[in-house]
Amino acid sequence: MTESKRETERKYEAPSADDTAWLPDLAGVGGIASVVDQGTEDVDAVYYDTDDLRLAGASATLRRRTGGPDEGWHLKLPLSGDSREEVRAPLSETIPDTLRELALSRTRGAELRPVVRIRSTRGVRQLVGSDGTALAELSIDSVRAESLLATGMRASWTEMEVELAPDTDPVLLDAVDKTLGENGIGRAHSSSKLARALEETAGGVPRGPDERAEAVAPGSAGEEVLRSVDERIHALVDLDPAVRRDLPDAVHRMRTTCRRLRSVLRSYRSVLDREATDAVREELKWLGNELGAERDQEVLRERLGARIEALPRELVFGAASARLQVWDAGHTAEARLRTLDALDSPRYLALLNRLATLTERPPLRGKAARPPGKVMVKAILKEYGRLADRMAHALDLPPGTERDTALHEARKAAKKTRYATEPARDSLGKPAKRLGKRVKTVQQVLGDHQDSVVARKALRKVALAAHAAGEPSFTWGLLYGQEQAAADRGERELPPLWAEASRHRLRKALNR
Q1: In the chain, pLDDT over 70 holds for what percent of residues?
Q2: Which domain holds residue 408?
């Protein structure tokens, strides 16, 4: 069993842990009314990582801590700014399976072993507000680190950290930071105790030959595209633990990240060699499809549940809500299992390793060295041309199944066009952003239409099950009619919306 908390803190260099005369009085700073001494505690932590320190390289840490009020296993994952998420598991002799799984997107299945032991004597002070509530904790640590790698080296230092209480406004950190800086106390150079221990006992995280830096020209199309690729790979790795823990919107965001990354690799084949990237795209498609079962079920549940809730009570016949819940429970459990099976599969591990290779040794083509302008304009125009062709085809068809399929294909082309504009926003500026925004408007209408198509299929199945069980199917027919009306409305809105979105001189705008 695990629990988690958001940890927001800043670390500082500290002259001494024994004589703290250097520490300024923080009472009156940022709403702090008093500073209360909580005594000292001794903690002993062994940090685990792979032989090549993949967790440390991804700004994550896994430790087994004894002593202090929070002894146990702690996995710390980076968030934005000064925050990290700390996932805890009870103290045990071996690494808990849950934490091993949550670290997998960063370890990529490599074995975890002890790499550093850090013992600290910690002096703790509470920063208390006027109402007696603890706003933050200030600790001064006397640290002794020992490498458990081949070097066996040791190091010691003193540091201070200020960690906010869960509900404290982060602005307090800035106020404390300003006061400390005015008294000569600077921020720590290392982001964590582990990072400093590795720097002082093992030379830091090992770095191989920087093949990428030598291959990528500054300010080139290759640099722009790879920045976008990196962002999406990092997002996928970061979302893995959230999906495993079934956090809100995590599956949707990870699936969207797969699509965005696939689209960039497809659109910029002139920059990245497709002989290397096509296989990656195929595996990203597989992962997106596996995640899609759970996400599609989530969308259906919310959509149909909202429709039932909106109906007048006199139009809800039989146990419609209960029938929907039973239907959803079975499908959701099956979809959830499919997601977890995918993330635990050797195929997913192989994909993670391919993505790491793509980042470290990108398969650049000759055009990667060119300025980004023309290269990116050409890629965007190509995707836009596909979108225009698919829209024209779909709008020429009469309403029905064939048109539904064509509109779905147009929706996918709209996404690819929008995603192609994202890496180009720095170099092309407003024209790329404007095009992306216009295409997104069309995509949203197409998306709602496709959701209606899927909902009608599900409603028909639920209605048949209700009928077979002797339940009235009136409500399901009513909902089906609402979905059909929504689809018809979207199809009427689409032609003028597309005409407006495409009514501009695209090539001239992008080349401006």
Answers
A1: 97
A2: 373-512
